[in-house]
Amino acid sequence: MPQMNLVQAINDALKTEMRHDPTVLVLGEDVGVNGGVFRATESLYKEFGPDRSIDTPLSEAGIVGTAIGMALNGLKPVAEIQFDGFLAPAFDHIISHAARIRWRSRGRFHVPLVIRAPYGGGIRGPELHSESPEAHYAHTPGLKVVIPSNPYDAKGLLIAAIRDPDPVIYLEPKRLYRAFRAEVPEGDYIVPIGKARVAREGSHVTVICWGAMVPVALGTAEKMSAQNVSVEVIDLRTLVPLDVETVIESVKKTGRVVILHEAPKTCGFGSELAALVNDRAFEYLQAPIVRVTGPDVTIPTAQLEDYYLPDVGRCVRGINKVLSY
Amino acid sequence: MPQMNLVQAINDALKTEMRHDPTVLVLGEDVGVNGGVFRATESLYKEFGPDRSIDTPLSEAGIVGTAIGMALNGLKPVAEIQFDGFLAPAFDHIISHAARIRWRSRGRFHVPLVIRAPYGGGIRGPELHSESPEAHYAHTPGLKVVIPSNPYDAKGLLIAAIRDPDPVIYLEPKRLYRAFRAEVPEGDYIVPIGKARVAREGSHVTVICWGAMVPVALGTAEKMSAQNVSVEVIDLRTLVPLDVETVIESVKKTGRVVILHEAPKTCGFGSELAALVNDRAFEYLQAPIVRVTGPDVTIPTAQLEDYYLPDVGRCVRGINKVLSY
Amino acid sequence: MAAKATIAQREPLVPFIQILGPDGMANPTDVVELGLKPHDFKALYRWMVAARLFDERALALQRQGRLGTYAPVLGQEAAQVGSAYALTPEDWLFPSYREHAALAMRGQSWLQLLMFWGGSEEGNRIPEGVKNFMVCVPIATQILHAVGAAWAAKMKSEKSCAIVYFGDGATSEGDFHEGLNFAGVFQAPVVFFCQNNQYAISVPRTRQTASQTIAQKAIAYGFEGIQVDGNDVFAVYKVTKEALEKARAGGGPTLIEAVTYRLTHHTTADDWTRYRPAEEVEMWKQKDPIKRLKLYLEKQGLWSESEEAKLIEELKAEIAQAVTQYEALPKRPVEDIFQYMYSEMPWNLKEQLQELKEYLAEHGGDLPKE
Amino acid sequence: MAAKATIAQREPLVPFIQILGPDGMANPTDVVELGLKPHDFKALYRWMVAARLFDERALALQRQGRLGTYAPVLGQEAAQVGSAYALTPEDWLFPSYREHAALAMRGQSWLQLLMFWGGSEEGNRIPEGVKNFMVCVPIATQILHAVGAAWAAKMKSEKSCAIVYFGDGATSEGDFHEGLNFAGVFQAPVVFFCQNNQYAISVPRTRQTASQTIAQKAIAYGFEGIQVDGNDVFAVYKVTKEALEKARAGGGPTLIEAVTYRLTHHTTADDWTRYRPAEEVEMWKQKDPIKRLKLYLEKQGLWSESEEAKLIEELKAEIAQAVTQYEALPKRPVEDIFQYMYSEMPWNLKEQLQELKEYLAEHGGDLPKE
Ligand SMILES: Cc1ncc(C[n+]2csc(CCOP(=O)(O)OP(=O)(O)O)c2C)c(N)n1
Ligand SMILES: Cc1ncc(C[n+]2csc(CCOP(=O)(O)OP(=O)(O)O)c2C)c(N)n1
Ligand SMILES: [Mg+2]
Ligand SMILES: [Mg+2]
């Protein structure tokens, strides 16, 4: 099986699906000739030409708005927004249109659109290149929110997203783009949307995470195992619809929960998880849930970025906190 | 003391502050000659003229973006966005600029800007006229989020917001605009940002709410008192910065919590409150927190709207649920 | 410096097209060139009158509390009917919220329009086979969707176009710009149809933009802009048809500015007397698009008072029937709220629906009266 | 129809201004009319050379891993220096992220520029008394802020203007449109300065818009648009100064399109060879703005090789000193992350800062090495 890094797996997913389905196309800034600033759309232009690998004007509302129009007229656009921070200019089209057209039309129209964007910190980016906006989209009914954490999932989830009849916000942990390689099957397969993955089994405490926080959680679990603490790591893979069963099952088993995410704490997706655990496993909780997250500040640029991002040390602290309660 | 309804109190706050401070001005769609579609800016045009009561082109990014420019050049703009649903086109300027300019400039510049928008359901509005987007802004560091629930607070909080050196998202429960009148002092006073109000004292259960849900909570409390259930109602008034002390104090007293809001449940501000209560009063909780909220759907237009909105009956159910645990 | 000749001193940068004057007079060759037959003239007239009668009925219903806030067509009938008449069933139509005339011509029933303005999402359920898009509440956003749909048609080598309706106010939104710019770059087969009715609620056109005309904004996108008398159904038909043909032939987009006037309130929630003088409204009443076509038809011997009476009677009956149906509609089930969010209902919606049903059941099947 | 004469067939709709040709030749009267003295010419030259030397140094630092991703000025020196030279200290300057030359001229030190590109927010701390705004990463958003600031100046009856810099790509964003439209309507004293360097990363100008020129987009907003040779520092100075004077006199905004070229990568993270032919770059090297002014100065007897050598030595020393300072800077304290969010730190930030400090203290005062 070929070894790929995460961005290659994404590229492979796009290729696979574009070969398979002639209505699939990619559009965005620099996605054509240049192959994308992260090379996620590398060589699509050569293979599929300018009509299916479309360099657009610099205009995020334009990209998402026209992609919606394409989607309702029979195409399956995969729109790339160059960086997380530039989803904001397309926000209105995402939340007021993509998310609502099925609803607005009573199912007569729907929007099989994927919006891909690199997200999160850790690459020493300039401002607005390191945001984690997943909670905005998780709070918007009508959208699905998918975040892979490894090459295998990245490909399988992206193919699933393209085939999904609903609009999918597909956030790519850019810090993992080239972090490691893993086996990725050639050709066609999907990882179903809505299914979490138990990335590591454990019995003392559950760490719930996604994207670039998954390796942090796994590193923490490894470290804690030396102290005979058994950490279960759940990689959500999909925030909406959430695999609530896998989460709650794990919490019932361990009775202790740490939620780990990069976004600022207040109103992050972590608070939803905390509320859900409260709803469904209150009596199993042996300690208050701990959220290990970015603080409620704008994520700093390169020099101080590491002070913002949750790391193994902070995750260890969180685990010790729930264990010592 | 004069009796005013909520929208009159807002109008009065604007007048008071514009008389008091010549750098204060209002801008937005139809706010000048027409006095605002809800008449919140009524007669400002006559008193302060077209330069301080500015009809803008139909362009929300334009309104907020230019208001940011005015704010950094010494003015204190109060921007009106005509309806909650039309905050989305200005989203980028709110979250990427208004919220960040103090940070970006290391305090050299700041944005004393108030963005007013009517929000929430209950007026049988067309689509995108009944949204509750507070969680988007609560999740954005650098913004303050203020929501009044009565005429007195509306005036005092708005004056406080205008004087605040930071950008304030000021959401007005449009359903309460003309729902009732109350005494509002003439002239100058503030209700401090960051202070919640115990709207009714009680001992068995705490209901946390804001905006148009406050009368629902109070109605519920009244109803429950007939059954000898004593409900404490906390009107947050400010979501960010949150008056966490008042909330936690109440929870410690009652041990039972219902959170009531109009926005969809997933990732609503209610999940943050649930997570915070978990953080700080876990051992006091005698039952899982119950969230009584809008479901995870697009709020319906007129005919089915009431099926979406939390009402006394649903709040009663929530209270019974925490009580019967 | 060489740029001293400013824009303002220039000749108009776009043509202004008029065929049928306010007096009902038209140059016969211009009319012949339209390629329309007497039955077409009558059809145009019929739709315009229908729109006006529907407006009247809807306003009355609203005042009686039987309909929600309503946005009237009054004064803009020629702009809508003339343009929609030029469409083929293959073409896509993207409305704003004021195009009842155009939507009715394109297979949406009066009943559906009443349902929409009565506050039911069902009013937006486009009939199968009809290529309209739903009413769009947020200003200007539909422009981008239309461009995308037209662009997709081009990619699929279909011969269909898209027409998108919007107001003068909409031209100030970023979406207008991004949409027209994409259309120019990708030569999408789309017609941008601006009904410049001189106001965006209370804000006059002159406050909306310092541009002399809206049509000339096309210059920024490298394609053609045309101003047309929006109260002249012939001229509107002509420019729209030509723009559609050009688009179909690969000639790219066109921006049409139909100069017209909203003769009444923005919606039933508005009061125009707060922001415009009565004389202005009176002046525009003289340019009434329906009166104008009627005069023409009469002069051509194509129309009589008895035909007029019959038409009005027929249309009133048609609309009255829709009103009866509308008022007899049963309430929609609460499932409606949940079932159009996703292709399949996720667990949280299932639970929330269940919870709502339990709550209703506890109160005899419906919300408690408070 | 009357509109058959399409835009494309028209004469250019905006003037194109050039004074100093690629050969260093200029019409003497045109030069005299600039009102510049020899020391001004030398100052212009000095800043352009400084920008190029700073670029070189920054690129070298980046390659050695001592600086983050960097966006070079190379090729655009005349556009930036010519325009910024026309400003008074009272005027506001709103940069994008590529205006190091303009910012340096306006009181921002090389050290600060290095700090910014080295990934410290401190690089954005505008010195007191300097009316620059911070580097703006999201494309085109600063346009609206500039309009607001200029409009406020007008309201306060100040005689200051705002200039805002952006690229050809920025003209596709909705914010460009909304900003220019507001400026037209409110006659804000603002100069929109577009450095059309022919590319937005890999996307060529022709893909960005079907408009023949960017300058003609001003027609959509009812004010003047001018194209200028962006590699001609004299012409750039002239049109900017006139636009500023017009704005100050109440004449409203101007859109200036400076036609120039980015001679290297978009940033250090980019590779231009992927999307443009080497010949194109070579062709533009012939139009080098610095070479051009140098030729002129030499022809006028205002410049010698020894002066050149001295200038370069001085500037290199100045920049080297900034680099030394930059590299000696202590790390910023973690409080930096928390203290600029609000006028007063709310409880949650205080707690989170406290938590972070405790964590660092547990690891000897800094993050653990992993
Ligand atoms: C994005 C957005 N902002 C504001 C509104 C509120 N609003 C509804 S109609 C309208 C005026 C529209 O004017 P115009 O585009 O000229 O269309 P007209 O109503 O005149 O047909 C406004 C401001 C809205 N619907 N959407
Ligand atoms: C809103 C937004 N979208 C995308 C980007 C990513 N990006 C950075 S520079 C750039 C190209 C800008 O081109 P242009 O406006 O011509 O300026 P230039 O870099 O050529 O000076 C892009 C797409 C961004 N910074 N902001
Ligand atoms: Mg209008
Ligand atoms: Mg460029």
Description of the molecule:
The complex is a heterotetramer, with two copies of chain A (325 residues) and two copies of chain C (370 residues). Helix content of chain A is 36%, strand content 20%. Chain A is built from twelve helices and 14 strands. Chain A has helices at residues 6-20, 44-48, 60-72, 91-98, 101-104, 134-138, 151-163, 213-225, 244-254, 269-281, 305-308, 312-323; strands spanning 3-5, 24-28, 53-55, 76-80, 114-119, 144-146, 168-173, 181-183, 197-200, 205-209, 231-235, 238-240, 257-264, 290-294. In chain A, helix 3 packs parallel to helix 4. Chain A is globular, with a radius of gyration of 19 Å. The N and C termini of chain A lie far apart (46 Å). The longest helix of chain C is centred in the N-terminal third of the chain and has 26 residues, at 38-63. The interface between A and D is large, with 46 and 46 residues. The complex binds thiamine diphosphate (2 copies) and magnesium ion (2 copies). One magnesium ion is lined by residues 167-169, 197, 199-200 of chain C. One thiamine diphosphate (TPP) sits between chains D (98, 137-139, 166-170, 195, 197, 199-201, 262, 266) and A (29, 58, 60, 82, 86, 89).
Beta-strand level of the residues of chain C, as a percent range? 5-15%
Shape of chain A: globular
Largest sheet, strands/sense/barrel of chain C: 6 strands, parallel
Helix vs. strand class of chain A: alpha/beta
Using the alpha-carbon principal axes, give the shape of chain C.
Answer: globular
> How many β-strands of chain A, per DSSP?
14
Strand percent estimate of chain A: 15-25%
Question: How large, in whole angstroms, is the Cα Rg of chain C?
Answer: 22 Å
Mean pLDDT of chain C: 96
Count of alpha/pi helices of chain A: 12
State the separation between the terminal residues of chain C, measured CA to CA. Answer: 73 Å
Question: Over the alpha carbons, how many angstroms does the gyration radius of chain A reach?
Answer: 19 Å
Distinct helical segment count of chain C:
14
* Total strand segments of chain C: 8
**Strand numbers in spatial order across the main sheet of chain A:** 3-2-4-5-7-6-12
Helix proportion of chain C: 40-55%
List ligands, each type once: thiamine diphosphate, magnesium ion
Distance between the termini of chain A: 46 Å
Identify the strand order in the major beta sheet of chain C: 1-7-8-4-3-2
Subunit organisation of the chains: heterotetramer
Sheet with most strands of chain A: 7 strands, mixed
